[in-house]
Each structure stands twice: as C-alpha cells, then as structure tokens.
Amino acid sequence: MRMQELKQPSSIEKTQNFLADDIKALENLMLSCFAGVSEDLIQDIASHLLIKGKGKMIRPLLCMLTSKMLGYKGDAHIKLSASIELIHLATLLHDDVIDESDMRRSLPTANVIWGNKASILSGDFFFSKAFKLMVSAGSLASLDVLADTASKMVEGEVKQMLNLQNKTFISQEDYFQVIEYKTAKLFSAACKVAALISQEEYVDTLAEFGHLYGVIYQIQDDTADYFSNSTGKLRGKDFLEGKITLPLIMLQNKVNQTEREVIEKIFENERSQQDLDKVLSLMKKYEILNALEIKVGKLANQAKNLLNNIARSTQAKNLLTDLVNWLAHH
Amino acid sequence: MRMQELKQPSSIEKTQNFLADDIKALENLMLSCFAGVSEDLIQDIASHLLIKGKGKMIRPLLCMLTSKMLGYKGDAHIKLSASIELIHLATLLHDDVIDESDMRRSLPTANVIWGNKASILSGDFFFSKAFKLMVSAGSLASLDVLADTASKMVEGEVKQMLNLQNKTFISQEDYFQVIEYKTAKLFSAACKVAALISQEEYVDTLAEFGHLYGVIYQIQDDTADYFSNSTGKLRGKDFLEGKITLPLIMLQNKVNQTEREVIEKIFENERSQQDLDKVLSLMKKYEILNALEIKVGKLANQAKNLLNNIARSTQAKNLLTDLVNWLAHH
C-alpha cells in the first residue's frame, strides 16, 4: 500500500500513544485466544499474523478512539476491537487462498508457508475466536451488527470473485458496491459498535463515518496498486490479476473510443508489464491520480463533517479527524 | 453411511412426526437466511445443501427433542438448532475442499460443481448466518458454548489433517481426541444449549449425553467405511484417503507381528482396492465388526443411563432413547 512507503505519520503515532494502554490490552487479548490451542500449526499462523506481520490495526484504532470520544469507560471496546481485527485476519487468510496471493505485509502469505488447507482451517479458527470475544463483550446488539457484517463481507468477496471470473468491465456503481461490502462494512461496524456500547444516539452517524473511512481506505489501496512503489505490495498486483478498480474505471470513463477498446482488450487476456505501462501512461495523460485525490478529498470532508455532529470536543475526536486527514493525504 | 442402506427406521420417523411443526419452522428459518442474499451463487449452494442434498438433520433433532424433554416452550431452540445445522454445513463445505471430496449424500459436492473458491466463501457465509441466528436466540450462554464448539471443531480438523500428512499410525487415544473435537463437540453443544435455555441443572448431563451420541455417530460412520454398501458414500473412501479410524486401529491391536507390518506398509503409500480387500479379510478373521458393535453397545448404554437422570418421563425422552438405539443398532 502507498501509505507504507512514507514515514509513519505522526497522527497514527499520536493515536497509538493516546491509546497505548488499550492497544497493549488488545494485543494481549488477541494472543490469549491462541494460548490454549492444542495445535502448534494454529499458534504458528497466529504468531505470523499477530506478531511478525502485525499491521497498523486501523479498525481497532477506530473502534477504540470512537469509544473514547463518546466517553466510554468499560472494557467491551477492547473485546470488540480484538474481535473485529480477528474477523479481518480471518478474511485475509481466506482471501489469500482465493486470490492465490503470495505476499502480504512484506511477508510470504500463510497459504504459501503452510498451504491452502491450513489457511482455510486457521481462518475458520480466527473467525470462531472472534465470535467468542464478541460474546465476552456481552452486547447482543454489537453481536448482531458484527454477524451481519461478516455475511456482507462474504457477499462482497463473492461479488468480486464473480466479477473477476466474468472478465467484464464493471461500472463505478458495481465497484462501490463491492468495496462497501468487502471493506467498508467492517470499518463501519468498528465505529457503530463503539456507539452501541456507549451512546446510542450516535449509532447512525458513526456507522456512516466508519463507512466513509472504509471507502476511502479501499480507494487508497486500489490507487496504490497503480501509483505506489511500496515493498509490501507489488505494484500492479490487482491489475495483473485482472481486478477492475476505481483508477481504471475513472480512466475508462475519460479515454477516447480507440483507447477504450485498447483497455478492454487488455482485460480480455492475461496482462503483462507492458500492458501496465500502457495503462499507466494513459492514466498520466488523463490525470487520473488528480481525479482520485479530488474524489478522496470530498469523501474525507464528508467524514469530518459527520464528526462535527458529535457535541463533545475531545482529544479523541481531534485524533479521529487527524486519522481521516492522514488516510486522505497520501 | 451404513444407516442409509436400510429402510428409514421408525424411530427417526416417529421423531420427525413428533417434531413436525418444529422441523417446518427450522427449515423455513434456515432458508430465510439466504432469501435476501444478492448473489445467486450463494443461494444456489444453499439450495444444494438445504433442499436437494438435505440430510437427516440429526443435530437439530437432538436439540429440539432435548428441549421438548425439558419442557421448553419458547422458540429459541429452533433458532439454535438452525444455527447448529448451519455450522455443520459450513464445516462440510470447507472439509470437502480440504479432503478434495467429490460426493456427499449421493450428490456431487459444492466444490466439484462451483469450485473451491465458491465453497470456501459460502462456508464462511453459512458460518456468519449461524452466528446471526444464535444472536437472535438471545442466549449469551448458548453463544459462548457454540463459539467454543466452533473453535474445537477446527482444532479437530487440523489434528486430522496433520495425522493424514504425517502418515503415521495413530493410537486409539488420538482417534478419540480427533472425533471428540471434530464431531462430538457439536452434538454435545446441541444438547447442552437445549438445557441452557430450559433447565440449567441438566447442562452437564445433557452435554455428556450429546458427546456420547456424537462419538457413536462417528464410530458408526467410520465403521460404514469398511462394512457398508451404501450408494451415498463410497466404501473404503477413508481407507483409500489414508484416514486411520477405529476399525483399523482395533485391527492393528489384534493382529500378529507379520500382519501388523503388512498393514503399516499399506499406509505408507497410496492404497489400492486390493489393499482394502486384504484389510477387510483381516477384519473378518479378527471379528472387528463384532468388537465395534460391543464398543458401540457400551457407549449407547452409557448414553441411555444418563437419560435416566432426567426426572421427567415424556414422549420426547422415550424418542431420545429410541434415537440412541437406532444409531447403535445399524
């Protein structure tokens, strides 16, 4: 992802400092889910994902920061955050099998190291532990949201898989439906459950905030596929796999008829590095990166405006605003 | 399975008649989980499993019958039963990918028809809907039991996968640990949650009853692999795949040194029909079927004795006893 090539931005660091105790508790809680497991294989995969290949845990950060913003004082937000991260990791394990991915977060994927069968089963294990944590949080309303979210995420993955198999050029509308389901729903749930356990009047506002955050997150990820030099993610990976994402859809909507046919032809067969270069030069010609930045900027403003509906003005709220800016500006 | 070759036994029919309204509600509830799904693929797979390839739904029958025995009057037992059946189906979808199975219940498996990717994702979908149903039952204690059960089932599958990869002869103890996790835990949970929502003083007794039922169920399934002519399951399937199950372990504990080495050699490489015939003739020589029947008979008596601890004597209790006899006697 493009964001990985930059120095860790200070808004993430500030958030991590602000939430230091919560993050420690979150990490211990996630590791404790695997402590009593009889099979070393599952423990090895857990270490690979939770320690060696540890990500920014952006979904838990949002859930915990939102909880703080709303003045939540208990510990259910830790349990729910851990649960959300484990759902996320479970889907990564299965997605990497489905997409036949070999690298993630600069490490070989679990399916490469331990095989597809081990990845399928450990994904199921992560998923079951996620539900166990949710139950321990004791909020049936949050359980309901997260069970629904898990279903929708699968629907999004199925949509994406079928789009890929059909080899047809998807519309912008189709694209936004896929990313709403496969990505934004879990971000939305992360913020929604924080409201459910603290101040229910903000449930809809924060669900929408999380949704926008997730949409921007996925657009940035898809943008990075064309415009990043990150080591963690191979540039052009989605392109070479045939995934149609926003940069390409925007391009397709701007090019002339001849160029459009060239692009469509590229997506009918296996794609090469030369094809990627051709598409990149068209993206430069039509200033697609600029168009994407404008789109992201609008969505970021919508997200920040939603936070203005929250009466409190706290450090947590300011950090949440900073996290929107951080995501939108690189 | 061996039981499929016989005429549907009357104790199952009697149970189905007794629970007719509940079964109808259960089926409608399970189908309703897939009604609003945007992807036809998931709906097609759901129809394949819930309608075309519908099984006996033995786990829901146990849950519903146990609830009735304890005088339960609400509808949470339907929701929990549906949830348990969906967890079971989710594991079948994933297991068939992992075992590379091509037939189940006399039909091609979902992975053969729709591919591994679709099976992985629809398994995840079934799993998420199972949790959604559990939440709707409103019993946090039952949710906790079922989340734990789901984890243990995965541990059992991992154990089995590793045993298979290691190609070593497992002990009877290892065998019982695998079947406890991969099979008996869900049967146990089916009976345990029925007690949790109705009469908590019977939780342990019924968890143990369900456990024994599941152990017998798996032994009968493993026995059928050697002694059945069922069309639904290819005889010798587990044997040819290299799965070491109780009939073979019992045989290995009775044969002489020369025979033991022959059997071990057979399991070092791919197995043929001739190998199966050789093992079957040894099983005949050492009366393994008889030894299995004695083992199952003992477990069935333990299970029925547990029911004697339940003060009530109702039709549901009698049917539950009949279901033990039905399972044990063919």
From TrEMBL, chains A, B:
Metal-binding among keywords: yes
Keywords assigned: Magnesium, Metal-binding, Transferase
The protein's required cofactors: Mg(2+)
Domain of life the protein comes from: Bacteria
SUPFAM superfamilies: Terpenoid synthases
CDD domains: Trans_IPPS_HT
GO molecular function terms attached to this record: metal ion binding; prenyltransferase activity
GO biological process terms, semicolon-separated: isoprenoid biosynthetic process
Family of the protein in this entry: Belongs to the FPP/GGPP synthase family.
Name the UniProt record assigns to this protein: Octaprenyl-diphosphate synthase
